[in-house]
Amino acid sequence: MTTSFKVTLGCLGLALATSTALAQEDGPPPVWQGVWEGAVGDAPVHVCLEGTPVGQGAYYYDRVKRLLRLDPGKAGGEWFEQETFHEDGARWRIVPHEGTLTGTWSDGKKELPVRLTRIAASSKDENGPCGSTAFNRPRVGPVRLMSGHAIKDGERYTTWSFKPGPWFGDSIEITTFTLDRPGPQVAKVNGLLRSALPKPDGTGDWFDCVAGTLDGDFAKAVEPTLITARWLGVRDTSDYFCGGPHPESFSTARTFDLSRGIEVDPLDWFGLKAVHREDQGGQYGVYKTLTPAFRAAILKGWKGESDADCDDAMRSQEDWNVGIARGALVFSPQFPHVIAACTVDFKVPFARLQSWMNEQGKAAVATLPN
Question: What's the DSSP call for residue 247?
């Protein structure tokens, strides 16, 4: 997935949200701030204008739905497409009046009337007008899913993929799967797997990412790694750029108990000498970290990294993700972005883990394949 060419817009999105909030705290927003719909000539458009100290904006033609950036000109009510102060580019001259914006669009060769009506302000939207649902929602058409069929460990399953439309290019893609196996408990797990897909109205995590940055990259892939009569192992990978200093990438192992229709955490299979638990309350739940002794047991026999920083990070990291595999559990350190390249997965056989496990864990691994 390519992100480098979108860094400018991504950082713009972050700046828009921050500076809009500051502008609103300092005083009332300018009368032209908000989300507008109307037409340039005869072509219907949606427009967002930010009331930041410098002003920013974007628009799209309803038929095409590709975003075009608007930058303020030196004169009040003057905006230029794509390049700031690009005098040779298309120029907007618009004037606010009682909930409308009227004026002209000109590219130096022809001039068209601009007529816009406010459909939303943004004082209650932390992402500002250009990150609001009012501005972005019309870009999302009906949800269309593509499906396919595959086999893993002798089990048939259905793959699902979503792309929001050609106006987003190839920057947005979500894939997941559901098991073809019948039964109410499996249906519950399938529901959890399908939650990676957009909501019925097309919105979801991917939409929040794109809406918050004017543009963005969002890729999510949920794939099976192990399927047995009782257990389902999954690799959940996300790569996205939603503003900020750099893209983000996460890969997490997930485990589902098909006999109960729930997702479980293999860290719960270990006793107190292996896993420290801290109840953070409310929506945060219990935070689990590996104890120094257990971490040393996981890393036993590991020769370390040639990079001293990576070596130190691995040996001191408390936050780990655990997944299931044949005859083993797979331990992965959860590093922040700046040292994500240091990540190494450790596949530890069940026999080495028995003395650290509680009764629940011993019973669980007894049902996993060797």
Answer: -
Which CATH architecture describes the domain 265-370?
Alpha-Beta Complex (3.90)
Does residue 30 carry a pLDDT above 80? Answer: yes
- The CATH label, of 1.10.287, 2.40.70, 2.40.128, 1.25.40, for the domain at 4-139 is 2.40.128
Find, among 115, 154, 138, the residue nearest to 67 by Cα: 138
Contact residues for 333 (Cβ-Cβ < 8 A; gap 6+): 313, 314, 317, 319, 320, 342, 343, 344
Of 116 and 144, more confident: 116
The 10s digit of each residue's pLDDT in 298-338 is 999 888 777 788 888 899 999 999 999 999 999 999 988 77
Residue 153: partners with Cβ closer than 8 Å, 6 or more residues away? 224, 226, 227, 228
- Interatomic CA distance for residues 43 and 51, integer angstroms: 25
CATH of domain 143-263: 3.30.565
Residue 295, amino acid: R
